[in-house]
Amino acid sequence: MNICVFKGLKLIEDAYKVRTLVFIKEQKVSKEIEMDGLDKDSYHVIIYENNLPIATGRLLKKDNIYSIGRVAVIKEYRHKNYGKIVMDELIKKAKDLGVKEVFIHSQLHAKKFYEKLGFMPFGKVFKEANIKHISMKKRLNSY
């Protein structure tokens, strides 16, 4: 396993491979919604197995609010801790940046996963890309 953390578009094509498989092909999210133009200003994590990208996620700052998004693991690699590793790396990066609180729009089926990582749901269920989501947040402690 190899983990890359970077800002901008350095290895973005590898992140797009994972996101295309998971969001566009598997979940039927439109390419226009998925490719939102915010990647150049985001921090990204990509996990590789045998030189193939298998998991990804991003940390985005918008209007002074940090959010984690585009967390995806290729189907064959799910339930093997890769999603947690992506999240751990993104949270570590947020802490390194001095972020005090991070947000996520969790797909409803993934809510328990994020709760195990310390995220708390708030607000009402809503649809994003025609998929039910819930807003969640996590306070970050300094090291």
Structure report:
The mean pLDDT is 94. This protein is globular. It has a 7-stranded mixed beta sheet, with helices on both faces. It has one domain (2-139): Aminopeptidase, CATH 3.40.630.30. The chain has helices spanning 12-26, 31-34, 82-96, 111-116; strands at 2-7, 43-49, 52-62, 65-73, 101-107, 120-128, 131-139. Strand 6 (120-128) and strand 7 (131-139) form a beta hairpin. The two termini are 25 Å apart. The protein is α+β, with helices and mostly antiparallel strands and 143 residues long. The longest helix is centred in the first third of the chain and has 15 residues, at 12-26.
List the helices and strands and how they pair.
Blueprint: E1 2-7, H1 12-26, H2 31-34, E2 43-49, E3 52-62, E4 65-73, H3 82-96, E5 101-107, H4 111-116, E6 120-128, E7 131-139
Parallel strand pairs: 4-5
Antiparallel strand pairs: 1-2, 2-3, 3-4, 5-7, 6-7
